[in-house]
Amino acid sequence: MPDGDGARPASQPVRDAATLILYRRRGGRLEVLMGERHGASAFLPNRFVFPGGRLDPADYRIRPATPLSPVSLARLGRSRRTGPRKAAALALAAIRETFEESGLRLAVPGRLPAVPPSPGWAAFCADGFIPDPAPLLYICRAITPPGRPRRFDARFFAAPAESAHGDIRPSAELDKLTWIRPEETGDLLLPGITQYVLAHLAGWLEPAAMDDPAHQVPFHFMRHGRRQLSWE
Predict the structure, then answer these.
(1) Are 185 and 10 in contact (CB under 8 A)?
(2) What whole-number distance in Å separates Cα of residue 121 and Cα of residue 55?
(3) CB-CB contact of 103 with 34 (8 Å)
(4) Which pLDDT score, from 0 to 100, does residue 46 have?
(5) What is the DSSP letter of 62?
(6) DSSP-assigned letters across all residues of 76-125
(7) Cβ atoms 131, 92 nearer than 8 A
(8) What pLDDT sits at residue 40?
(9) How many helices (H) and strands (E) does the chain have?
(10) Which fold has domain 19-231?
């Protein structure tokens, strides 16, 4: 809608999406895999982010090697309009996007009886691999504020780097992929939600929190023009 008459432009539709934070510890210090979005990107250009992207219909049709963990299923089950089937698809979307953007697979050897007609999954399953969502832990949710060129209802998962296989490589989405300590990201261009996740990640990865299906998941969104933080 044109805004020359004072009307607000129509907001973009909100699409489901998933993000994966791969983490490791070196010398007792936490590190996460991040990359810089290309400057020509319509969404968050030149920002450092975790791998991730929108949910694809093919993500519903993949049969993984293992189910999503009971902890993550319980947490996602408290989220509105997120039943077990969608929860599994979101985890698979995070795995697929991570492979597409970084070259790393969370998978086990094997062959699917059928692979959906999806370029992303065809490449992922090539040479005999089946996605393995068991290591994924659901930790956060955020909806992109209105007024952005693209909007997502993003679910954030975390998984240990040891569960991923392959060689890290840049992609059409992410460049400068590297392992970064959360406390050393002050000079990077980061989205607000990424800053929030980095600030709280260590606490979410404490054993007591990781093993607790009742652990409340933070949910960031906008309402009446103001940022809101709720819990699910």
Answers:
(1) no
(2) 13
(3) no
(4) 77
(5) -
(6) HHTSTT--HHHHHHHHHHHHHHHHHHHS-B-EEE---S---S-HHHHHHH
(7) yes
(8) 62
(9) 5, 11
(10) Nucleoside Triphosphate Pyrophosphohydrolase (3.90.79)
> Which amino acid is present at 171?
S
Tens-digit pLDDT profile for residues 28-70: 999 999 999 876 665 666 789 999 999 999 999 999 999 999 9
Q: Which residues contact 118 (CB under 8 A, 6 or more apart)?
A: 56, 58
Q: 3-class secondary structure for 147-196? A: CCCCEEEEEEEEEEHHHCECCCCCCCCEEEEEEECHHHCCCCCCCHHHHH
Tokens of 222: 């906008």
Q: Using alpha carbons only, how large is the chain's radius of gyration in Å?
A: 18
- Token output for 12: 């973009």
Instruction: Show the tokens assigned to 168.
Output: 């890290």
The C-alpha atoms of residue 182 and residue 123 are separated, in whole angstroms, by 31
Domain ranges of the chain: 19-231
pLDDT of 4 higher than 60? no
